[in-house]
Amino acid sequence: MNKLSKTLSIALLSVTTLLSGFSFAATEDGSLEQIKKNGKLRVAVFSDKPPFGYVDREGQSQGYDIELAKALGKNLFGTEESVTFVLTEAQNRINVLDANKVDITLANFTVTPERSKQVDFAEPYMKVAIGLVTPEGAPITDLAQLDGKTVIVNKGTTAETYFEKNHPQVKLQKYDHNSEAFAALRDGRAVGLAHDNALLYAWANNNPDFVVSIQKIGPDDVIAPAVKKGNDSLLNWVNAQIEALQAEEFFHQAYDKAVRPFYGDKIDPDNIVIDQSNK
Q: Where is the Solute-binding protein family 3/N-terminal domain (predicted)?
C-alpha cells in the first residue's frame, strides 16, 4: 500500500468511527425500546430527602420514590436490580433528562405549569403542599409574621418559586442541598424553612425542637414521574404502570415501608398517597 492509499484508509476509518459514534449517540434517546435494549432503567432520585429519596449508611438509595423505581424496573425487566439510581439535586431534575443521563426523574418532582412545558409528567402518585418549619420556641403561625424576615428555601423548588412570586417582602436564603438548608435552620440563620410539607413532617418528627407551624402554604400540588419532553412511548408505559400499581394498593404498601417509620402515626396516609380510591 502506497503512502496516499494508506492516508486515505486512515481517514476513511476515522470518518467511519465518527459516524458510528454519532449513530450510537442518536439512539440513546431514552425511549422504551432503547431502555429495553440497554437492559437497565436509569432513574434520577434525591440523596438527602428522607423519607422519599436518601442514601443509607450502607450507601444504598432508599425511600418512597426508590420503592416506585424498583417496582418499575421489576415490571420492565423482572428484577429490581435493573434500576440504576442517578443522584440529583432539585435544580437539575430537568437537566438530567434533557442530557439523556436518566430515563425517568422520580426525585419528588412537583407538577407545575412551568415544568410541564419542559418535561412530560406521568400520572401523579403523591399529594403535597408547601409547609413551614420553625423553632418550637418561636413558631411562625401566619405568613404576615414573615414580612422582612429571612426564610430558608432550596433552589429549584416550588417553595422558592412561590415566595418569589407571592411574597417578595420575605427574604430568601437559598441552598443547593437539603442537608445544608436544615443545618442553616438549626444554626438560627433564618426564622424558618419552607419546603414540601411531606418532607417537613418527617424532619420535625426527628427534630423535636422544631415544629411544622404552617402545614399548608398556597395550593395543593401533586408529585409525578417525569420523562423527557416528547418521549411518548415511555410516558404511556409509565402511566399504565402507575394505574396498575394504584389498583394493587402498592403506594399504601410503599408508604408503610418507607414513610411511616419517619412519620409515625401522626399523619393520615391518605393525605400523602394517591390511589384509585382518592384520585
A: 40-261
